[in-house]
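Example record used in the benchmark description.
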Amino acid sequence: MGTVHPAVSVPQEEMPRWLHQQANRARIHALRMVHHAGIGHTGGDMSSADILTTLYFSILNLDPANPNAPNRDRFVMSKGHCSGIFYSMLAMRGFFPLEFLDTYMDPLSKLNGHPDRNKLPGVEANTGPLGHGFPIAVGSALASRMSGLNYKTFVLTGDGELQEGSNWEACMTASHYGLDTLTIIVDRNRIQQGDFTEKTIRMDPLAEKFRAFGFATEEIDGHDHAALLSRMQSLPIEPGRPSCLIANTTKGKGISFAENKPEWHHGVPNAEQLKAAIEELSVILQEPV
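Model output (structure tokens):
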């Protein structure tokens, strides 16, 4: 099975801008979904869009026509509450029709507030309760080694989510077994529900914590597609050790009135705000979304 994605026809020098365009398309989809449902997690959807776009369109070995292929790469969306951007990415990548996004959180919709692998192709794990996704990803990486398939496993966590102790148990296990096919990416937007992370439970020095637990760790600009692409294409950071990328991001990225504001952790745009946000996000696009 080979990787199949529309990025294959994009020249390498144009890839960062192209990825930026796809990320903003995904942001617009997610905003419309949250507005439609009247509930969601706008801030985290926006902060993680560039990370997800880089993964899904340039890194992950996936085939939407064969979503359960044994040797596919695995991606676990541990911060499952940011389902708006996750579903947008899966739909844009071809796992299900874009029209499904219009049903977000409707009664009987397959697009729950938290992802359900029993309802949608491309979802590897049911997530949302924080602290579950990373341990699942560690299990996936162990299975990769035991099966001899050697697929890669990526997991995206929120930074506030790391206050759950299960993540650090998972760190110890991954380090003990030297799972270098595993990469954890931390969406380090520094805001969690209610307030800034450092006012809730201090996270810093976060990179040093991961290094102490045995992870090869780097900090990266989570909105710089060129930097994300370069780093993710050359994983693991260090052979024989699991990798951690701390992606420094901005909550609500791309929406001037929502950026870096705790109230937009789960703020819902009204009609006027939706229109204004789409206008801002559309500047880089070559055609309307």
